[in-house]
Design a protein that fits this description.
The longest helix is centred in the middle third of the chain and has 37 residues. The termini are far apart. This protein is mostly helical. The mean pLDDT is about 80.
């Protein structure tokens, strides 16, 4: 009895390029989102403790 292979078939160069472009876009969006939340948290911290600037 031969079991089917569970490995993903090799992708061609065009598919690989699309996957890399998608991954880079997701990373850029995550960096932007992290920066946006960090800025908001900095504003909340300034409102709470009254100090200005980042530490």
């Amino acid at each position: 009895m031969v079991l089917p292979s569970r490995t993903r078939p090799a992708c061609d160069a065009d598919e690989r390029t699309q996957l890399i472009a998608w991954w880079n876009m997701k990373r850029a969006l995550m960096i932007e989102e992290t920066g946006r939340h960090a800025g908001r948290l900095d504003l909340v911290r300034e409102l709470l403790d009254g100090s200005e600037g980042c530490y």
